[in-house]
Amino acid sequence: MASVNPFNLSDSEEEAERRPNETVDTERSPSDGAPGPPPGNPFSPPADAEPPSLLLSSNRTSPSGEGISASAAATSAMAGSAETRVSVDVIAAQLLRDQYILTALEFHTELLEAGRELPRLRDYFSNPGNFERQSGTPPAKDQVLGPGGPLNRAGSISTLDSLDFARYSDDGNRETDERVAVLEFELRKAKETIQALRANLTQALSNFSFVEPIRPLEKRALNFLVNEYLLKNEYKLSSITFSDENDDQDFELWDDVGLNIPKPPDLLQLYRSCGTPLPSPRDTADVSVGVDFVDLPGNFCNLSQTEVVQELEYQISLLNNEKQNLAEQIKKLQWCVLECMSVLLSPAFQQALLSFCRMCSDSRLGAEVSRIADSEESVMLMLGRCLPHIVPNVLLAKREELIPLILCTACLHPEPKERDQLLHILFNLIKRPDDEQRQMILTGCVAFARHVGPTRVEAELLPQCWEQINHKYPERRLLVAESCGALAPYLPKEIRSSLVLSMLQQMLAEDKADMVREAVVKSLGIIMGYIDDPDKYSQGFELMLLSLGDPSERVVNAVHQVFIPAFAAWTTELGTLHTSLIPSLLARIEKLHTQGEHGLDEHKLHVFLSALQSLIPPLFAVVLQNAPFTSRVKLHGDIPAIEVTRFPRPASPLQDVATIIGSREMLSALLQLYDHQLEHEGTTGWESLLWVVNQLLPQLIEIVGRINVTSSTCVHEFSRFFWRFCRTFGKIFTNTKVKPQFQEILRLSEENVDASAGNGILTKATVPIYATGVLTCYNQEEDRKLLVGFLEDVMTTLSLSHAPLDSLKASFVELGANPVYHELLLTVLWYGVVHTSALVRCTAARMFELILRGMSEALVDRRAAPALITLCSGPEFSVRISTIPAFGTIMETVTQKELLERVKMQLASFLEDPQYQDQHSLHMEIIRTFGRVGPNAEPRFRDEFVLPHLHKLALANNSQSVENKRIDIATQLFEAYSALSCCFISEEVMVNHFLPGLRCLRADMEQLSPEHEVILSSMIKECEIKVENRAMSDPQGSMSIASSLVGEDAKTKFLSKMGQLTTSGAMLANVFQRKK
C-alpha cells in the first residue's frame, strides 16, 4: 500500500484532524509530557541504535543529509503505515527525543508559518536552558530523556563542500587554528557559567511566598507578558510608552528576562486558567538538546580565520557582560530571600520594635554611617565630606597616616571646590612638619602630580604653595620651597620658567631662615635642569651669584652641590658653558683686581673662584664629548676600570664626571682615547680643548700674577683651583699643556738670577700657586723631585738676588699645612742649610719657623732641631739670629723635655755668651720671640727662663748709650710685657723678675714717652697691690696683672690707655721720635 504523507493534507483532512479525540494530543502543553509511542511504532528506534548525527553545514539541515524539508521527513517516517495517522505533537516529541534538533526547528518554523503553533516546540525552543546545559550535568531523576541522554555540545561536522582547503594546506598557519580553539573553549566555559547562574536564579525564584513583594526578575517577566498583551491587542502607543518606561529591558526576546524557564502563556491564557490548578512539576519532562546556536548559521567555515577569531571574541565579551549582570541580580535576590525569610510582621510593629535599637541617623556622622557608599564616586564624595572633620581630631604625630586618604580623594573627587579644600588640608596637615613628614607630603604631591597631569597641578597644587610662601613657620616655607623643586618635572614649561622661578627668587632674596634658602637653592637647581627658555640664562646667572654671596655656609654648599651643576648642564645644552658662563666669571675676577686699589675683596674672589672650581667637571665633560675620537668609542670588550684617585672627590654626585657623561663605562672608554689623543695625535681640530689651552689657561695665569702674594686666602683659593683643574684634566694634560706655560713665565735658569723680570715674577703669587696647585697634583717620585727642585731653585734665586721672600713663605705655609709634605720641605731646607751662601742659609733658617707648627715631635727632634743647631754653628751671626724664631716655635709647640732642654741651652748661649752682648739684632729677635711664644710656652720655661732674661735685658737697656737701640729694645720690651701680663705668674717671679723688669722699662719710658710711662705705672701699682693682698691671704698664689686690677675705675683707666696706644713697634718708635 502506498505511503501517505500525513502533512500533505487537504482542508477536509485538516478539519478531520481537529476532531475532539485528537485535540488533546495536538494541544497538549509541554508539562503533559511526551507520551512514548506504542511498542510496535516504527518511529521508535531500536535500543542499540546509535544516536543520529547532526550535520551543521550551510546547506545540510536534515538528519538524512539530503536537505529535505520537515514534511518530507515526516513522509518518509510514515511510509510504512499509510493507514495510521500520527499527531504532530507525537512527531515533535519523537524528533526531540531522537535529537533531530534542526529538523524539529524547521518543523516548528513551518507550523508557525501555517498558523499552527505547537506548544511543545514553542516551549522547547524558547527555553535557553535547553541549549546551554553543561555537558557534565546529569538529568533530573524524573526527567524524560531520549535514548541519547542529555544533549551534549555537538561539534561541527565538516562536509566536503564546507572544507576550507587553505586551512589544511601544507603552509597554513596553525597558530590561528589554536587561537580559534582556545576562543571556542572560552566561549563554551562562559556559556556554561551563564547556564549555572541562570539555574541559580531559577532556583531562587522557585521558593517564593505569595505575601512577599515582587522580585526584580518576576517584574521583568510580567513586563514582558504585559508588553506582549498590549501589542497583540493593538495598544501600540501604550506599548511604546511602556517600553520607554522600562528602557533597561528588551521586549523582543524572552531570553532577556534572565530565567532558565520557557516563556509562559500569554496573559489571556493565564487569566482563563487562573481557576485551574497548575500541573505538578513532577509531570513535566524537560527535553534538552545541546546545540550551540553559534553553529546554526553554518557559515563559519566560509569565513577567514581572523573573522572567526573576532566573532568569537565578541561573543565572549557579550557573555561576560551577561554573566556579571546575572551575578549582581543573584546577589540582590539573595538579600531579598533573606528579608522574606524573616518573621512576617506589620510595618508599624516592625518599626516600633526596631526603635529600641539605639541608632542615630539625624546627625552628620549618623547620616554618613547609615549611608554606605555603593560606587567609586560615592566613596570619593563620602571621603571629601568626612576628612575635614577627621583631620583635626588625629594626633599631630600620626597625621601623616592620613596623607594617602587625602591624596586619593583629592585626585578622584569630582568637585573642584572639595579638591581645593583637601589640598589645603594636606599643606596644613601638620603645623611644623619635620623632615620625615615633609618627605611624606612631598612624595604624595609628586604622586598626585603624576596622576592628574600638568594642568591640574598648575591649577590646584601651585596655589597652595603660593599661599604659604610667607608663612610664619619656617618649616611650612621649607615645604613650599621643596615642593617647587619636586613638582618641577610635572609642571607646564611656561609655568616652570615664570611663576615658579619668580616664587623661588623671591624666597631666596627675602627669607631669613637658612634652611629655607638652602631648599630654595636646591629647587632652583632642579628648575634649571628642566628649563628650556634660553632667555632665562641671564636670570639664572644672577641667581647663581646671589646665592653664592649668601652669608650661610649651608646655602653656599647647596649652590655648589646642586645649582651650579644643573646650571652648567643647561649651559652645556645651550653651548654657552665655555663661551659665556666661564668667561663671565673670569671677567668679574679681573674686575676685582682693577677695582681693588686698597686691597682685593677676598670674599668676592672666593665666590667667583669657587664657582669656577665647580665648573671644572662639566667643562671636562664638554671637552670629552666634543673630542675627535667620540665616534670611535666602543663599550664592548675589555674596558679598564677608572682609578679611584683619577678625579678629585666630587662635592656631590652631580659633579661626578661619570654622572655627567652618563656611565663609568662610557667615561672609561673616553678617557682611554683622550690620553692616547693627547700623547700621540695632538689637539688639532679639537676646538673645546684648544679653547682651554689657548684662552682659559693664559688668562688664569695672568690673573694669578696680579694677586697679592701675602694674602694667604687668595693663594689658597687659586692653589685649590689649579689642583682640581689639573687632576680633572689628567697627568698628560698637566705635563704637556699646563706646566710648560708656567715654566715659560717663571724662567728659573741661573743666568736669569739678576734679571729684573725674572725676579719680579718670582716674587708674585705665581710661585706658590704653581708649586702647591700644579706640582702637587701627582705624588709619584718624579713629581716630588720636580717640586723639590723648583723650591730649591726659588729659594736660591730669591736669596741671592736679595728679593722679598713672600712668595717662598707662601709656598711653605701652604705646603706645611699638609703633613704629607713635611719630609719634602725638610729636604728642601736641608739643601739650604748646607748651601755655601750665607744668604741661602738665612732664608732656610727663617723657613723653619713656618713649618714647625703641626709637625710631629719625632720629626722635629730627628731632622728640624739638628738642622737648626747646625745653622747656629756657622760663623755668620745673621744665620744664627735667623734661627731664633724657629727655636721659639719649638719651645711653644713641643713638650719633649730633652728637646726643650737642648733648645733652652741654645737660647741661653745667645743671651749669656759674651760674644753676643753687643748684638743688637739678636737681642731684638729674642725679645720679639719671647713676647710671641711666652703666653703659650710651658709655665716653667716662662718663669725660669723668659721672665728672668727679659728682666736682664730691661735692666741692661737702662744703660744703653745709643738712643736708637734703646728705643728699639724698649719698643720690643713693651710689647713683650703687654703680652705676658695676661699670664698667671707666681708671686715669687712677680716680685723678683716681673715687677723689677717693669720698673726698668718705666725708667726708659719716663724719658722717651710719658704716655706709656702712665700705663706702666698703672700696671706696676696694681701689681704691687695684688702682691700685698695675696701675701696676706695666700702666700702661695699666682696672679696676673689683668686679673689683679682691683677697682673698676682702675680697670677702665688701664684698658682705655691701652686702647689709645698700639703695641706695634713702628708706632711706638714714632712716638719716641716725637719726644726726642
UniProtKB/TrEMBL annotation:
Residues 1-10, 127-137 have a biased composition (Polar residues). It is found in: Golgi apparatus, trans-Golgi network; Recycling endosome. Residues 173-207, 309-336 form a coiled coil. GO terms for biological process: intracellular cholesterol transport. GO terms for cellular component: recycling endosome; trans-Golgi network. Keywords: Coiled coil, Endosome, Golgi apparatus, Lipid transport, Repeat, Transport. InterPro entries: ARM-like, ARM-type_fold, LisH, RELCH. PROSITE patterns: LISH. Residues 16-30 have a biased composition (Basic and acidic residues). Residues 1-69, 125-153 are annotated as: Disordered. Residues 35-49 have a biased composition (Pro residues). This is LisH domain and HEAT repeat-containing protein KIAA1468. It comes from Astatotilapia calliptera.
